[in-house]
């Protein structure tokens, strides 16, 4: 059961070529622009700091990998904890009990279907999860970059090369270059994953390198040097730093933070982009209780050394990712529709 957003009623901030009578696209200005710069800089600084730390004290970074991953997940939890409110925020509508209940029912049904799939066919579903996650991370990056630059939100086939490169960097590189850890972890979700062919993993590294080089060249040719530099920076992160540490910093300070930025700057009921403080309060009010519940559950799971409990937690995480991806895709479609794009 998918999560659907109704036809939009407002123009989205930072959107591209608008429909008749709508205002043209523009990048955030004033307070929102400063907030966007700060969020973007925090991710870049965090990644650079981790790269420097790994170069100076690699053993310490490797030892702290689990803790960094846990911190990153905790920091990233709120960006998915408001999924039930995104359909309202995306259209500047007030939250109503009926539509909220229907949206939650669809969310739970999607998660339950994903859970059933991963339990019935863990190995192929885990590979599908990795593929879809790569698409999600890649699309999330190019959409945010477009909105911050005031370009039209890219359709699914637009900016496909940088999106594919970003997704491959985040998913394929830690899987293939740090296979001693990644295969062991994923084998808990899908028994047999640890037997993945080394030749396949080597091919993923080569394919990712080709995608990154081609995407960087294309971005530089399009005079998008900042985006090219960030892609190269992430490639260095996931190539050089242990997978758990790299993903923790990326997920908490980069991916989740930039998605949160989008949600904070969504227009309110009056169709206007809210002041940063107001947007943050709206976001915090919606995220606090689900986030606390998720953090307590994560703490309870991490406190046990029982492999079966940890495996169950990983399976549940895979299942809950599915409805989140559906919500984000619906948000992207709403933003493009509000901008008069397809």
Keyword list:
342 residues, globular, mainly alpha
Sheet with most strands: none
Overall number of strands: 0
- Measured between the Cα atoms of the first and last residue, the distance is 23 Å
Instruction: State the low-pLDDT regions, or none.
Output: 1-24
**Percentage of residues in DSSP E strands:** under 5%
Q: Return the string of H and E elements.
A: HHHHHHHHHHHHH
- Please tell me the overall pLDDT: 84
**Number of distinct helices:** 13
Our Rg estimate from Cα atoms comes to: 20 Å
- C-alpha geometry: globular
Query: Approximately how much helix is present in the residues?
Result: over 70%
Assign the structural class, choosing from mainly alpha, mainly beta, alpha/beta, alpha+beta, or little secondary structure.
Answer: mainly alpha
